[in-house]
């Protein structure tokens, strides 16, 4: 498998707390990986290190073979904006903007005109089942609709990797099922890889692989088995 993203021998300590104790991960194009484990086991630190938000103390993060863990903060944040999409537990949409402008925002931040960015943003509304909701503000959307808008916003830049941190954590079971089905299928269709942290085994089961993290290490050995 040629890796779009790789984390090799990653370690991270906070004071005397070992959050990551030498973890490896290769993620291929259209590959989806769920990271599970008990509270405090290092899942978020792992995700944030792969996404270039947390710098590892040791090891490497490679995006298409390029080492990104040592880039300057400016270059790293430019790289994140261009190559990575993010979905968080509760959408983190801007409440004053209509849904289509929330989706268009990453493109406008990259310098695209509002008109063109909104036109591109609208293309994501049909695949995510959001037709007719383009003008709604986040406060006028259900939890599941808001998460689908957040998924559109993550995908609009056509990223190489989507990182999702408990993307269904605030949703009921039925809505969660619908959101994870769309997140995995639309991300795959777009050609991006997906790396997701979740507590929910039913959500993780939608991914190709499930990694179990315990005390900062990967504890299962089935990590390269594609379901
Ligand atoms: N910024 C920080 N400063 C100090 N300690 C931290 C920091 N971030 C994480 N830790 C510690 O590192 C360990 C791993 O934390 P992490 O958030 O990665 O775990 P997690 O598995 O995502 O937990 P949860 O499921 O509760 O979100 C924990 O012991 C946590 O307290």
UniProtKB/TrEMBL annotation:
The keyword Nucleotide-binding applies. PROSITE patterns: ABC_TRANSPORTER_1, ABC_TRANSPORTER_2. Pfam families: ABC_tran. InterPro entries: AAA+_ATPase, ABC_transporter-like_ATP-bd, ABC_transporter-like_CS, ABC_transpr_LolD-like, MacB-like_ATP-bd, P-loop_NTPase. This is ABC transporter ATP-binding protein. Residues 5-226 form the ABC transporter domain. GO terms for molecular function: ATP binding; ATP hydrolysis activity; transmembrane transporter activity. Keywords: ATP-binding, Nucleotide-binding, Transport. One of its GO terms (cellular component) is membrane protein complex.
